[in-house]
Amino acid sequence: MKIFQVFFKTLKKRSVSVIIYFMIFLALSVLMSGNGKKQTEAVYKDAKVKVAVLDRDNSVLSKSLYDYLSNTQKIVEIKDDKQSISDELFYQNVEYVLIIKKGFEEGIKTGKYEDIVENVKVPQSISGKLLDSKIDQYLSELSTYMAAGFSAEEAAKNTLKNSEITADVKLYKVQGASEEKSSAYYYYLYIPYVLIGMLMTGVGSILLIFRKKDLDWRIKCSSMPELRKNSILLLACGVFSFVCWAVFVLLSLLLYRTDILTGKGALFILNSLVFLLVAMSLIYMVSFLVKTLNAMNMAANVISLGLSFLGGIFVPLEYMSKSVVQFSKVLPTYWYVVNNEAIDSFVNTTKQYHTILRNFGIELIFAVLFFVIALYLSKSRAIAQHG
Amino acid sequence: MSETVVKIENLVKNYKNLTAVDHFNLEIKEGEILGLLGPNGSGKTTTLNCLLSLLSFHEGKIEVFGEKMKPESYSLKKNIGVIFQNVAVFDTLTVYENIDFFCGLYIEEKALRKKYVEEAIQFVELGDFKNYYPKKLSGGLLRRLNIACGIAHKPKLIVLDEPTVAVDPQSRNKILEGILELNKQGATIIYTSHYMEEVEEICSRIVIMDKGKNLAEGTAEELKRRIKNNETIYIDIRSLPAEDMDNIRQLKHVYSVEYSEERLTVKCDGGNHNLIHVMDYLQERGISFGRVHSELPTLNDVFLEITGKELRD
Q1: What's the first-to-final CA gap in chain B, in angstroms?
Q2: Record: contact A226-B71, CB cut-off 8 A
Q3: Cβ–Cβ of B101/A2 closer than 8 Å?
């Protein structure tokens, strides 16, 4: 087991860079899972404006307007003088001051209600403009009732009653973006980026050291069978990769216990385990393609970021153009992300179950494909070296 | 009679259109230090790589310890130690750990391995550096570590491919002394170099190689005897008439006389005291002369005469 020991001794020497990667990736992963969750918590909520009403008419209809505003906005009491209005607006105690002028009710009755209210509001306030329109609408309704022959009390009562009628608001969003995702979803979404980056700088660089021609040949000249050497190396890679993955799973248990200790949680873990196999095969393959440690570090960045951006980890798939999504389908990260979403929205239907299983299968096909390519590259390399 | 340790018959190795080893034959007996001498690109390293089954070959037969050598001949490999031209150690392991690792590829028993590793460290005199990482070692110490990694398991056949390239004279002497010591301990050694002095100093038999061919083999003395030139005499003379040059050419053993830039060069093909005959002649003729010196043939002369070119590039 000398090779096994040397693998981990060499890894120990590179542990600083691996740990730094681990910490950066972890911080990113946790941070982004938090941010991502907030960004998509999109719910419809009617805005309430802090409004002061100065009723100088004191009529049935002006009181009706006051009642309407107190039902729909946040009423703030202020003094009825110019200085107080300025101060309250300046200190942002109110956003909108409505002055109901003397003759308000008369104006409504005669249908001349354009100049019966006055307002002072925070400049460029969107909520202020919204309130303007609401008040206009209310006054218009009152005026309509009065014109129809209703008494002031009846007009006030009916208009107020109508204002209480609410409509169901349905937010139409792009498919997938509207649903609120669990924290575990975001945590596991970033796992491929973490795994590829970490394993490539750790395992990849050690494989590269063992493949240096002089060292490789010196080992080949020894009495240790080639198959045994390769098996031990693969075992060491597997152990390290599995430990890295297990650390991430344990962390997810600590951070998002309620999400993870469910059927969905188990599927998230299984999805990441399947992707671990993909990452291992990918790194094994890449280790035959790059020649220097610097190139391996560069490859770690390019591949982990490339697969993450194009596969839908950093940029949600629904924001990508159709052609990019078509291309993404040839990347393993795409299927991981699609599966992650399928798992998050899993409600135990047979169809969903089959979709998840199919995605696992596709991920495994990538793992096998990369491994087969790696074996081919290994064979070609051996033939080239052996002459 | 000594046992044959290595037998190479009609070895041919081609790289596309280039024939790197061309019907090469070699037999090495137990206890020999065989020097493979040849310029860069002569096929020395390729021959060794074929011998070690690191490279395949197109024709021929290679036997080690009486058995056909194949990539999977692990029982044979147990008795072979290899020291490559380039230092092949792990930068992430200390001197001790490196030797322990490579010894561990052959020796599984922990106690025995520990003993062998300690002995190897002592042998290459790296005791003070055993906890050093390779990057902290000088070029000479690195070469010694490279050797220790190749010999720690006490092989019966040691292949050294230019182990003294870019090594300071002190480390070089240590390495050469070490090779002689290993041989004394019973190891058969194959040593490749393009430094003729080294080969002459330590090798019991020398094979001269060029363009993948075995051009000549024997001890250094045997090889030198094989060539026409036995002694070269250099004498500084202001002027030498053509008549005198002809007369010198008539002297015993002289086969070549040249005079240029006030220097007379006389080559002799036999005898041990040719200088005295030339000096007698010059004194008789009253020809005054300055600096005089005589050189016995070197392996470079052997190589020059066999191939028509200098050994060193």
Answers
A1: 39
A2: yes
A3: yes
